[in-house]
Structures are given as structure tokens and as C-alpha cells.
Specification:
- The complex is a heterodimer of chains A (about 110) and B (about 120).
- Chain A is mainly β.
- Helix content of chain A is about 0%, strand content about 50%.
- In chain A, the strands form two sheets. In chain A, strands 2, 4, 5, 6, 9, 10 and 11 form a seven-stranded mixed β-sheet that branches. In chain A, strands 1-3-8-7 form a four-stranded antiparallel β-sheet, with no helix packed on it.
- In chain A, a hairpin with a 6-residue loop joins β7 and β8.
- In chain A, about 35% of the residues are buried.
- Chain B is built from no helices and twelve strands.
- With about 120 residues, chain B is mostly beta strands.
- The chains are: A mainly beta (about 110), B mainly beta (about 120).
- Chains A and B meet through β5 and β9 of A and β6, β10 and β11 of B.
């Protein structure tokens, strides 16, 4: 059973460009969480999605950031007009349903904004 | 809002010795979960151990055990017989179900553990 997959593992963008980060949950999991890890910090919650629904986006910055989890395909975290402060590791985690508290993490995408 | 505090930014331990990592948290909730995650240089987040707040018995997973003191809001991790592969960042994390129905993890800033041969 393949684990949570994220790609790309490393992404370099210039200021002002768009970054798209992908997350494929574990087989059978329909719930995805996104977290951001700034340098020297712990992970911080960004957004929680089910297939085709955003359930909780209380941790998402109000501008430039968006997330989706379509019926088919991976979950996407999109950052428009990136700035240097967006440089971080972005992790997704999946769980099989809403009431299952354990989350399984992917390897993360390291975004560098130059 | 919940907060998680790890007061030891760095620690070291001799191989085969025992080390304890500290974690305290602040919450007004009664039902919640606590976790320790390990992040080796590969950056993969690996679940080490979990504890349900309603359980009085401390969780144990092989060489890893916790000391859960609910009244004191303390959740320390003990690693016995330390191995070189234990070298990593260790994050303490708190989880509860939010009003929106999600299970958000709140992480501490981490403790960098080095196991010395």
C-alpha cells in the first residue's frame, strides 16, 4: 500500500511566479490536511479538505493561497505570486475519514523562492 | 488556542543510554490526543507514539514510552537504549477536533536530538 505521495519534492520559483504542490493521499483515504513548516519551526496547519470540499481553511493565508481536492486526481495547494516568505516545506497528510484522528504524512515539498 | 512548548531546543545522548524529551501544552479541552513525531534529515514526518487523553495508562512502543501527566499538561518522551538512527528532530503535537470538524495538529518547535556513538 503506497504511502502519501507529494510532488515535486523540491520546487524553485522566482518571486511573482506561481507554485503548485501536489498531494496524492494513501489509497482509500479521502481526507487531506496541508501543513507548512517554516525554517526552525514546527508544522502549522493550513487547510483540511475532503473530496470536492474545503472543510476547514482557518490556517490559510487570506491572499494568494488556495487549495483544492477534486473528485479525480491529487489535492493541489496553489500559491500565486510567491514571495520569499513563502519559502518553506509543505507537508500533506491523509486520513481515511473525518472521525479518524491519526494522520499519515507525505515526504513534503520544499519550496524555495529566489 | 492550543499551544505546545518544547523547552529543549537541542539534546544529546550517548548510544545505548536513555534520554527524556519534555513537552508541555496548554488547553481547556478534556478530550484530545497527543503525539510525538520524529523528523530525520530526510524530513519525512514519522509517528513515534500517540496518547489518548482519556487513557490513564502511559503509551509504550518498544524503546519509546511517554509520561503523560494530564493535570500538569505534560507529555514527555523517553527513549531507552538510544540508537544512532534515533538522531532526528522530535516534535510534540496536540490534536483535538475543531468546530469545523477537522482534526488539526498543533506542533511544538521541536527538539533536535543527537545520539553520540
Amino acid at each position: 500500500n503506497a504511502g502519501v505521495m507529494q510532488n515535486p519534492r523540491h520546487l524553485v520559483r522566482r518571486r511573482g511566479q506561481e507554485a503548485r504542490l501536489r498531494c496524492s493521499p494513501m489509497k482509500g483515504h479521502s481526507h487531506v490536511y496541508w501543513y507548512r513548516q517554516l525554517p526552525e519551526e514546527g508544522l502549522k496547519f493550513m487547510v483540511y479538505l475532503q473530496k470536492e470540499n474545503i472543510i476547514d481553511e482557518s490556517g490559510m493565508p487570506k491572499e494568494r493561497f488556495s487549495a483544492e481536492f477534486p473528485k479525480e486526481g491529487p489535492s493541489i495547494l496553489r500559491i500565486q505570486q510567491v514571495v520569499r516568505g513563502d519559502s518553506a516545506a509543505y507537508f500533506c497528510a491523509s486520513s481515511p475519514d473525518r472521525n479518524y484522528y491519526e494522520q499519515y504524512f507525505g515526504p513534503g515539498t520544499r519550496l524555495t523562492v529566489t | 488556542a492550543q499551544t505546545v512548548t518544547q523547552s529543549q531546543p537541542e539534546m544529546s545522548v550517548q548510544e545505548a543510554e536513555t534520554v527524556t524529551l519534555s513537552c508541555t501544552y496548554d488547553t481547556s479541552e478534556n478530550n484530545y490526543y497527543l503525539f510525538w513525531y520524529k523528523q530525520p534529515p530526510s524530513r519525512q514526518m514519522i509517528l513515534v507514539i500517540r496518547q489518548e487523553a482519556y487513557k490513564q495508562q502511559n503509551a509504550t512502543e518498544n524503546r519509546f514510552s511517554v509520561n503523560f501527566q494530564k493535570a500538569a499538561k505534560s507529555f514527555s518522551l523517553k527513549i531507552s537504549d538510544s540508537q544512532l538512527g534515533d538522531t532526528a528532530m522530535y516534535f510534540c503535537a496536540f490534536m483535538k477536533q475543531t468546530g469545523a470538524g477537522s482534526y488539526q495538529l498543533t506542533f511544538g518547535k521541536g527538539t533536535k536530538l543527537s545520539v553520540i556513538p
